[in-house]
Amino acid sequence: MFRSAAAISGHLVGPLWGKKVGASLTRCLHQTLTMAKRLQAHRLDGIDHNPWVEFTRLASQYNAVNLGQGFPDFSPPDFALEAFQQAISGDIMLNQYTMAFGYPPLTRILADFFGKLLGQELDPLKNVLVTVGAYGALFTAFQALVDEGDEVIIIEPFFDCYEPMTLMAGGRPVFVSLKPSHTPEGGLKLSSDWQLDPTELASKFTSRTKALVLNTPNNPLGKVFSKSELELVASLCQQHDVLCISDEVYQWLVYDEHQHISIASLPGMWERTLTIGSAGKTFSATGWKVGWVLGPDHIMKHLRTVHQNSVYHCPTQAQAAVAKSFEQELRHLGQPSSYFVQLPQAMQRNRDHMIRSLRSVGLDPIIPQGSYFLITDILQIKNKMPDLPGAADEPYDRRFVKWMIKNKGLVAIPVSIFYSGPHQMDFDHYIRFCFVKNEGTLRAMDEKLQNWKAELKP
Protein backbone atom coordinates (compact mmCIF):
# COMPACT_ATOMS: atom_id res chain seq x y z
CA MET A 1 0.00 0.00 0.00
CA PHE A 2 2.76 2.42 0.98
CA ARG A 3 5.86 2.96 -1.12
CA SER A 4 9.13 2.87 0.83
CA ALA A 5 11.47 5.84 1.03
CA ALA A 6 14.09 3.79 -0.84
CA ALA A 7 11.66 3.14 -3.71
CA ILE A 8 10.73 6.83 -3.95
CA SER A 9 14.39 7.79 -3.93
CA GLY A 10 15.15 5.28 -6.68
CA HIS A 11 12.23 6.55 -8.79
CA LEU A 12 13.37 10.17 -8.53
CA VAL A 13 17.06 9.53 -9.00
CA GLY A 14 16.72 6.92 -11.76
CA PRO A 15 16.45 9.28 -14.76
CA LEU A 16 19.44 11.26 -13.53
CA TRP A 17 21.68 8.28 -12.72
CA GLY A 18 25.13 8.64 -14.19
CA LYS A 19 24.87 12.41 -14.35
CA LYS A 20 26.77 14.69 -12.01
CA VAL A 21 23.60 15.75 -10.25
CA GLY A 22 22.78 12.16 -9.24
CA ALA A 23 25.13 11.93 -6.25
CA SER A 24 24.21 15.34 -4.88
CA LEU A 25 20.49 14.63 -5.21
CA THR A 26 20.94 11.34 -3.37
CA ARG A 27 22.74 13.16 -0.53
CA CYS A 28 19.99 15.75 -0.41
CA LEU A 29 17.28 13.09 -0.18
CA HIS A 30 19.24 11.26 2.56
CA GLN A 31 19.50 14.45 4.59
CA THR A 32 15.78 15.08 4.13
CA LEU A 33 14.93 11.59 5.36
CA THR A 34 17.27 11.81 8.40
CA MET A 35 15.53 13.18 11.50
CA ALA A 36 16.59 16.67 12.48
CA LYS A 37 14.80 16.50 15.82
CA ARG A 38 16.63 15.53 19.00
CA LEU A 39 16.44 11.74 19.31
CA GLN A 40 17.29 10.87 22.90
CA ALA A 41 15.12 11.87 25.84
CA HIS A 42 16.60 14.52 28.13
CA ARG A 43 16.53 12.02 30.98
CA LEU A 44 19.40 10.15 29.28
CA ASP A 45 21.72 13.16 29.35
CA GLY A 46 24.91 12.43 31.25
CA ILE A 47 24.22 8.77 31.91
CA ASP A 48 25.02 7.28 28.50
CA HIS A 49 28.63 6.34 29.35
CA ASN A 50 29.07 2.91 30.91
CA PRO A 51 32.57 2.21 32.28
CA TRP A 52 31.82 -1.53 32.52
CA VAL A 53 31.95 -1.83 28.75
CA GLU A 54 35.56 -0.68 28.60
CA PHE A 55 36.83 -3.01 31.31
CA THR A 56 34.94 -5.99 29.89
CA ARG A 57 36.42 -5.33 26.45
CA LEU A 58 39.95 -5.05 27.88
CA ALA A 59 39.51 -8.28 29.85
CA SER A 60 38.62 -10.12 26.65
CA GLN A 61 41.33 -8.41 24.58
CA TYR A 62 44.13 -9.37 26.99
CA ASN A 63 42.67 -12.76 28.00
CA ALA A 64 42.92 -11.70 31.63
CA VAL A 65 41.58 -13.47 34.72
CA ASN A 66 38.23 -11.77 35.23
CA LEU A 67 37.77 -10.90 38.91
CA GLY A 68 35.82 -7.79 38.03
CA GLN A 69 32.24 -8.64 37.15
CA GLY A 70 30.04 -9.91 39.95
CA PHE A 71 28.80 -13.32 38.93
CA PRO A 72 29.73 -16.90 39.90
CA ASP A 73 31.58 -18.96 37.30
CA PHE A 74 30.35 -22.17 38.93
CA SER A 75 27.07 -24.03 38.66
CA PRO A 76 23.96 -23.34 40.73
CA PRO A 77 23.11 -26.13 43.22
CA ASP A 78 21.84 -29.39 41.75
CA PHE A 79 18.34 -28.94 43.17
CA ALA A 80 18.01 -25.58 41.39
CA LEU A 81 19.19 -27.00 38.06
CA GLU A 82 16.80 -29.91 38.42
CA ALA A 83 13.97 -27.49 39.15
CA PHE A 84 14.76 -25.53 35.99
CA GLN A 85 14.97 -28.70 33.87
CA GLN A 86 11.63 -29.81 35.27
CA ALA A 87 10.13 -26.41 34.47
CA ILE A 88 11.13 -26.58 30.81
CA SER A 89 10.26 -30.23 30.23
CA GLY A 90 7.21 -30.74 32.44
CA ASP A 91 3.94 -28.79 32.51
CA ILE A 92 3.47 -27.34 29.01
CA MET A 93 1.55 -24.38 30.44
CA LEU A 94 4.81 -23.12 31.98
CA ASN A 95 5.62 -22.04 28.42
CA GLN A 96 2.80 -19.47 28.63
CA TYR A 97 1.96 -16.35 30.58
CA THR A 98 1.38 -16.63 34.29
CA MET A 99 0.00 -13.99 36.68
CA ALA A 100 1.44 -10.61 35.74
CA PHE A 101 2.76 -9.84 39.22
CA GLY A 102 4.29 -13.25 39.82
CA TYR A 103 3.86 -16.99 39.33
CA PRO A 104 1.48 -17.94 42.19
CA PRO A 105 3.60 -20.75 43.72
CA LEU A 106 6.55 -18.31 43.81
CA THR A 107 4.67 -15.38 45.32
CA ARG A 108 3.16 -17.70 47.93
CA ILE A 109 6.48 -19.13 49.06
CA LEU A 110 8.18 -15.72 49.02
CA ALA A 111 5.37 -14.41 51.23
CA ASP A 112 5.71 -17.36 53.60
CA PHE A 113 9.51 -17.44 53.63
CA PHE A 114 10.18 -13.72 54.07
CA GLY A 115 7.12 -13.04 56.18
CA LYS A 116 8.71 -15.05 58.98
CA LEU A 117 12.01 -13.19 58.60
CA LEU A 118 10.38 -9.76 58.56
CA GLY A 119 7.86 -10.49 61.30
CA GLN A 120 4.94 -9.76 58.98
CA GLU A 121 2.05 -11.76 57.57
CA LEU A 122 2.53 -11.17 53.84
CA ASP A 123 -0.24 -11.40 51.29
CA PRO A 124 1.17 -12.96 48.07
CA LEU A 125 -1.07 -10.73 45.94
CA LYS A 126 -0.53 -7.44 47.77
CA ASN A 127 2.91 -7.57 49.37
CA VAL A 128 5.00 -9.40 46.74
CA LEU A 129 5.98 -8.39 43.20
CA VAL A 130 8.20 -10.60 41.01
CA THR A 131 10.49 -8.59 38.71
CA VAL A 132 13.11 -9.07 36.00
CA GLY A 133 15.95 -9.43 38.48
CA ALA A 134 16.71 -7.06 41.33
CA TYR A 135 17.66 -4.53 38.64
CA GLY A 136 14.06 -4.58 37.45
CA ALA A 137 12.85 -4.23 41.03
CA LEU A 138 14.99 -1.14 41.56
CA PHE A 139 13.95 0.46 38.27
CA THR A 140 10.27 -0.18 38.98
CA ALA A 141 10.60 1.33 42.46
CA PHE A 142 12.31 4.51 41.22
CA GLN A 143 9.81 4.98 38.39
CA ALA A 144 6.85 4.42 40.70
CA LEU A 145 7.92 6.60 43.61
CA VAL A 146 10.38 9.31 42.55
CA ASP A 147 8.91 12.41 41.00
CA GLU A 148 10.42 15.46 39.30
CA GLY A 149 12.58 17.30 41.83
CA ASP A 150 12.37 14.67 44.57
CA GLU A 151 15.61 14.10 46.46
CA VAL A 152 16.95 10.58 46.97
CA ILE A 153 19.69 9.98 49.55
CA ILE A 154 22.30 7.50 48.31
CA ILE A 155 25.00 6.10 50.60
CA GLU A 156 28.46 5.94 48.98
CA PRO A 157 30.02 3.72 47.78
CA PHE A 158 26.85 2.67 45.97
CA PHE A 159 25.83 0.10 43.37
CA ASP A 160 26.27 2.20 40.27
CA CYS A 161 22.71 2.03 38.89
CA TYR A 162 21.16 3.97 41.80
CA GLU A 163 22.26 7.37 40.50
CA PRO A 164 21.13 7.00 36.86
CA MET A 165 17.85 5.41 37.92
CA THR A 166 17.18 8.39 40.18
CA LEU A 167 17.99 10.81 37.37
CA MET A 168 15.85 8.95 34.84
CA ALA A 169 12.88 9.30 37.18
CA GLY A 170 13.49 13.05 37.41
CA GLY A 171 14.89 12.94 40.92
CA ARG A 172 18.00 14.53 42.40
CA PRO A 173 20.58 12.25 44.01
CA VAL A 174 21.97 13.43 47.36
CA PHE A 175 25.11 11.62 48.45
CA VAL A 176 26.54 10.79 51.86
CA SER A 177 29.75 8.79 52.19
CA LEU A 178 30.78 5.97 54.45
CA LYS A 179 34.21 6.95 55.72
CA PRO A 180 36.94 4.58 56.94
CA SER A 181 38.22 5.03 60.46
CA HIS A 182 41.96 5.05 61.11
CA THR A 183 43.51 1.57 61.30
CA PRO A 184 46.56 1.12 63.57
CA GLU A 185 49.80 0.33 61.76
CA GLY A 186 49.81 -3.37 60.87
CA GLY A 187 46.17 -3.81 61.87
CA LEU A 188 43.56 -5.50 59.74
CA LYS A 189 41.32 -3.25 57.68
CA LEU A 190 37.65 -4.20 57.96
CA SER A 191 34.55 -3.15 56.06
CA SER A 192 32.90 -2.47 59.42
CA ASP A 193 35.44 0.34 59.94
CA TRP A 194 33.57 2.35 57.30
CA GLN A 195 30.91 4.36 59.10
CA LEU A 196 28.27 7.01 58.48
CA ASP A 197 28.65 10.29 60.33
CA PRO A 198 25.25 10.67 62.09
CA THR A 199 25.35 14.47 61.90
CA GLU A 200 26.25 14.47 58.22
CA LEU A 201 23.57 11.90 57.43
CA ALA A 202 20.93 13.92 59.28
CA SER A 203 21.93 17.05 57.36
CA LYS A 204 21.03 15.37 54.04
CA PHE A 205 17.32 15.15 54.89
CA THR A 206 15.20 18.05 53.66
CA SER A 207 11.55 18.72 52.90
CA ARG A 208 12.26 17.46 49.36
CA THR A 209 13.67 14.08 50.46
CA LYS A 210 11.47 11.30 49.12
CA ALA A 211 13.57 8.18 49.66
CA LEU A 212 16.82 6.77 51.00
CA VAL A 213 18.54 3.85 49.27
CA LEU A 214 20.15 1.31 51.58
CA ASN A 215 22.36 -1.56 50.37
CA THR A 216 23.31 -4.17 52.94
CA PRO A 217 25.50 -6.17 52.53
CA ASN A 218 27.01 -3.37 50.49
CA ASN A 219 28.39 -3.60 46.98
CA PRO A 220 31.32 -2.87 46.53
CA LEU A 221 32.51 -2.60 50.13
CA GLY A 222 31.03 -5.77 51.64
CA LYS A 223 29.85 -3.87 54.72
CA VAL A 224 26.95 -5.39 56.67
CA PHE A 225 25.11 -2.60 58.46
CA SER A 226 24.76 -3.22 62.18
CA LYS A 227 21.49 -2.95 64.07
CA SER A 228 22.53 0.38 65.60
CA GLU A 229 23.38 1.78 62.16
CA LEU A 230 20.04 0.60 60.79
CA GLU A 231 18.24 2.15 63.78
CA LEU A 232 19.90 5.49 62.97
CA VAL A 233 18.70 5.31 59.36
CA ALA A 234 15.24 4.17 60.48
CA SER A 235 14.81 6.99 62.98
CA LEU A 236 15.71 9.63 60.37
CA CYS A 237 13.39 8.10 57.78
CA GLN A 238 10.52 8.15 60.26
CA GLN A 239 11.34 11.63 61.53
CA HIS A 240 11.32 13.07 58.00
CA ASP A 241 8.57 10.84 56.54
CA VAL A 242 10.94 9.27 54.00
CA LEU A 243 10.70 5.95 52.14
CA CYS A 244 13.50 3.37 52.36
CA ILE A 245 14.46 1.30 49.32
CA SER A 246 16.50 -1.54 50.79
CA ASP A 247 18.63 -3.56 48.37
CA GLU A 248 19.35 -6.84 50.18
CA VAL A 249 20.37 -9.13 47.33
CA TYR A 250 23.41 -10.47 49.23
CA GLN A 251 21.54 -11.19 52.46
CA TRP A 252 22.60 -14.87 52.56
CA LEU A 253 26.26 -14.09 51.82
CA VAL A 254 27.39 -12.94 55.27
CA TYR A 255 30.66 -14.06 56.87
CA ASP A 256 32.44 -14.41 60.23
CA GLU A 257 29.15 -14.97 62.07
CA HIS A 258 27.90 -11.49 61.25
CA GLN A 259 24.13 -11.21 60.98
CA HIS A 260 22.09 -9.63 58.23
CA ILE A 261 19.16 -7.57 59.53
CA SER A 262 16.40 -6.30 57.25
CA ILE A 263 15.54 -2.70 58.07
CA ALA A 264 11.86 -3.50 57.36
CA SER A 265 11.88 -5.71 60.48
CA LEU A 266 12.63 -2.73 62.76
CA PRO A 267 9.75 -1.03 64.58
CA GLY A 268 7.89 1.46 62.39
CA MET A 269 9.76 0.58 59.18
CA TRP A 270 7.60 -2.02 57.44
CA GLU A 271 5.08 0.64 56.38
CA ARG A 272 7.74 2.75 54.62
CA THR A 273 10.20 0.16 53.28
CA LEU A 274 10.63 -1.79 50.06
CA THR A 275 12.85 -4.86 50.46
CA ILE A 276 14.49 -6.08 47.26
CA GLY A 277 15.87 -9.58 46.70
CA SER A 278 17.43 -11.64 43.93
CA ALA A 279 17.18 -15.31 43.00
CA GLY A 280 20.36 -14.85 40.98
CA LYS A 281 22.38 -14.04 44.09
CA THR A 282 20.38 -16.41 46.31
CA PHE A 283 20.88 -19.51 44.14
CA SER A 284 24.02 -18.52 42.17
CA ALA A 285 22.04 -18.20 38.93
CA THR A 286 22.36 -14.58 37.88
CA GLY A 287 21.27 -15.31 34.31
CA TRP A 288 17.80 -16.40 35.42
CA LYS A 289 16.93 -12.75 36.12
CA VAL A 290 14.29 -13.34 38.78
CA GLY A 291 14.01 -10.71 41.49
CA TRP A 292 11.31 -9.49 43.84
CA VAL A 293 10.08 -6.58 45.92
CA LEU A 294 8.37 -6.97 49.28
CA GLY A 295 6.44 -4.15 50.92
CA PRO A 296 3.12 -2.76 52.17
CA ASP A 297 0.25 -2.63 49.69
CA HIS A 298 -0.10 1.18 49.81
CA ILE A 299 3.40 1.40 48.25
CA MET A 300 3.37 -1.81 46.20
CA LYS A 301 0.25 -0.82 44.25
CA HIS A 302 2.25 1.93 42.55
CA LEU A 303 5.01 -0.51 41.58
CA ARG A 304 2.39 -2.81 40.12
CA THR A 305 1.19 0.07 37.92
CA VAL A 306 4.69 0.55 36.50
CA HIS A 307 5.23 -3.19 36.13
CA GLN A 308 2.01 -3.84 34.22
CA ASN A 309 2.76 -0.95 31.85
CA SER A 310 6.38 -1.90 31.16
CA VAL A 311 7.55 -5.53 31.28
CA TYR A 312 4.08 -6.74 32.36
CA HIS A 313 5.31 -10.25 33.04
CA CYS A 314 8.49 -12.18 33.89
CA PRO A 315 9.51 -15.56 32.36
CA THR A 316 7.28 -18.27 33.81
CA GLN A 317 9.75 -21.17 33.75
CA ALA A 318 12.46 -19.31 35.66
CA GLN A 319 9.89 -18.32 38.29
CA ALA A 320 8.76 -21.94 38.60
CA ALA A 321 12.37 -23.06 39.10
CA VAL A 322 12.93 -20.44 41.80
CA ALA A 323 9.72 -21.46 43.57
CA LYS A 324 10.88 -25.11 43.68
CA SER A 325 14.32 -24.03 44.87
CA PHE A 326 12.80 -22.10 47.78
CA GLU A 327 10.63 -25.11 48.64
CA GLN A 328 13.80 -27.20 48.84
CA GLU A 329 15.59 -24.61 50.94
CA LEU A 330 12.65 -24.20 53.30
CA ARG A 331 12.93 -27.92 54.19
CA HIS A 332 16.62 -27.52 55.11
CA LEU A 333 16.71 -23.96 56.49
CA GLY A 334 19.11 -23.58 59.39
CA GLN A 335 20.57 -27.06 58.97
CA PRO A 336 24.08 -27.93 57.72
CA SER A 337 22.46 -29.22 54.50
CA SER A 338 21.00 -25.76 53.75
CA TYR A 339 22.42 -24.01 50.68
CA PHE A 340 22.11 -20.76 52.61
CA VAL A 341 24.57 -22.26 55.11
CA GLN A 342 26.88 -24.01 52.66
CA LEU A 343 27.30 -21.16 50.15
CA PRO A 344 28.56 -18.52 52.61
CA GLN A 345 30.90 -21.06 54.19
CA ALA A 346 32.44 -21.83 50.80
CA MET A 347 32.62 -18.16 49.79
CA GLN A 348 34.27 -17.23 53.07
CA ARG A 349 37.03 -19.70 52.22
CA ASN A 350 37.32 -18.06 48.78
CA ARG A 351 37.48 -14.64 50.40
CA ASP A 352 40.27 -15.69 52.75
CA HIS A 353 42.16 -17.32 49.86
CA MET A 354 41.98 -14.12 47.84
CA ILE A 355 43.06 -11.96 50.78
CA ARG A 356 46.19 -14.06 51.30
CA SER A 357 47.06 -13.93 47.61
CA LEU A 358 46.56 -10.18 47.30
CA ARG A 359 48.68 -9.51 50.36
CA SER A 360 51.52 -11.53 48.86
CA VAL A 361 52.15 -8.78 46.30
CA GLY A 362 51.72 -5.88 48.72
CA LEU A 363 48.08 -5.12 48.05
CA ASP A 364 46.04 -4.12 51.08
CA PRO A 365 42.59 -5.78 51.08
CA ILE A 366 39.74 -4.64 53.33
CA ILE A 367 38.04 -7.69 54.84
CA PRO A 368 34.34 -7.72 53.88
CA GLN A 369 31.58 -8.90 56.20
CA GLY A 370 29.40 -9.98 53.28
CA SER A 371 28.59 -9.88 49.53
CA TYR A 372 30.55 -11.13 46.51
CA PHE A 373 33.28 -8.53 46.80
CA LEU A 374 36.24 -7.10 48.61
CA ILE A 375 37.99 -3.83 47.95
CA THR A 376 41.73 -3.33 48.12
CA ASP A 377 43.60 -0.18 49.09
CA ILE A 378 46.24 0.65 46.45
CA LEU A 379 47.44 3.91 48.02
CA GLN A 380 51.00 2.59 48.47
CA ILE A 381 51.13 1.65 44.79
CA LYS A 382 49.71 5.04 43.87
CA ASN A 383 52.53 6.71 45.82
CA LYS A 384 55.16 4.55 44.09
CA MET A 385 53.66 4.67 40.57
CA PRO A 386 51.73 7.94 40.35
CA ASP A 387 52.19 8.56 36.64
CA LEU A 388 50.33 5.71 34.96
CA PRO A 389 49.04 6.32 31.42
CA GLY A 390 45.70 8.05 31.11
CA ALA A 391 44.04 11.44 31.08
CA ALA A 392 45.13 13.87 33.78
CA ASP A 393 41.58 14.12 35.15
CA GLU A 394 40.99 10.34 35.11
CA PRO A 395 40.79 8.84 38.61
CA TYR A 396 43.92 6.87 39.50
CA ASP A 397 42.10 3.60 40.17
CA ARG A 398 40.77 3.52 36.59
CA ARG A 399 44.24 4.04 35.16
CA PHE A 400 45.62 1.41 37.53
CA VAL A 401 43.02 -1.22 36.59
CA LYS A 402 43.74 -0.73 32.88
CA TRP A 403 47.47 -1.02 33.60
CA MET A 404 46.89 -4.17 35.67
CA ILE A 405 44.78 -5.81 32.95
CA LYS A 406 47.36 -5.10 30.25
CA ASN A 407 50.49 -5.84 32.28
CA LYS A 408 49.45 -8.35 34.96
CA GLY A 409 46.53 -10.16 33.34
CA LEU A 410 44.11 -9.48 36.20
CA VAL A 411 40.76 -7.70 36.03
CA ALA A 412 39.28 -5.67 38.88
CA ILE A 413 36.82 -2.78 38.94
CA PRO A 414 37.87 0.74 40.03
CA VAL A 415 35.92 1.77 43.12
CA SER A 416 35.64 5.41 41.99
CA ILE A 417 32.81 4.37 39.63
CA PHE A 418 30.75 3.65 42.75
CA TYR A 419 30.99 7.31 43.83
CA SER A 420 29.39 10.54 42.69
CA GLY A 421 31.51 12.81 40.50
CA PRO A 422 32.67 15.23 43.23
CA HIS A 423 33.84 12.37 45.46
CA GLN A 424 35.58 10.14 42.93
CA MET A 425 39.05 11.62 43.40
CA ASP A 426 38.75 11.22 47.19
CA PHE A 427 38.32 7.46 46.82
CA ASP A 428 40.42 6.74 43.72
CA HIS A 429 42.91 4.47 45.52
CA TYR A 430 40.63 1.43 45.89
CA ILE A 431 39.80 -1.40 43.48
CA ARG A 432 37.14 -4.11 43.76
CA PHE A 433 37.66 -7.85 43.29
CA CYS A 434 34.98 -10.55 43.07
CA PHE A 435 35.86 -13.73 44.98
CA VAL A 436 32.71 -15.72 44.14
CA LYS A 437 34.64 -17.81 41.61
CA ASN A 438 35.57 -21.45 41.12
CA GLU A 439 38.84 -23.03 42.18
CA GLY A 440 40.28 -22.87 38.68
CA THR A 441 39.77 -19.11 38.50
CA LEU A 442 41.35 -18.62 41.93
CA ARG A 443 44.35 -20.76 40.91
CA ALA A 444 44.73 -18.69 37.76
CA MET A 445 44.67 -15.59 39.96
CA ASP A 446 47.36 -17.11 42.20
CA GLU A 447 49.58 -17.75 39.20
CA LYS A 448 49.25 -14.16 37.97
CA LEU A 449 49.97 -12.81 41.44
CA GLN A 450 52.99 -15.06 41.93
CA ASN A 451 54.44 -13.84 38.63
CA TRP A 452 53.83 -10.30 39.85
CA LYS A 453 55.52 -11.11 43.16
CA ALA A 454 58.58 -12.48 41.35
CA GLU A 455 58.88 -9.21 39.43
CA LEU A 456 58.93 -7.27 42.70
CA LYS A 457 62.04 -9.05 44.00
CA PRO A 458 65.21 -6.90 43.81
Would you write up a description of this structure?
- By secondary structure, this protein is an alpha/beta fold.
- The chain has three domains: 37 residues; 144 residues, Aspartate Aminotransferase, domain 1, CATH 3.90.1150; 249 residues, Type I PLP-dependent aspartate aminotransferase-like (Major domain) (Aspartate Aminotransferase, domain 2), CATH 3.40.640.
- The protein is 42% helix and 13% strand.
- The protein is built from 16 helices and 15 strands.
- The strands form four sheets. Strands 2-10-9-8-7-3-4 form a seven-stranded mixed sheet, sandwiched between helices.
- α6 crosses α11.
- The radius of gyration is 25 Å and the shape is globular.
- It starts with a helix and ends with a helix.
- The relative contact order is 0.14.
- The N terminus is likely disordered.
- This is Kynurenine--oxoglutarate transaminase 1.
Give the count of structural domains: 3
> Oligomer, anyone?
single chain
What's the overall geometry?
globular
Can you tell me the CATH superfamily of the largest domain?
A: Type I PLP-dependent aspartate aminotransferase-like (Major domain)
Mean pLDDT rating: 92
Task: Using the coordinates above, name the CATH class of the largest domain.
Answer: Alpha Beta
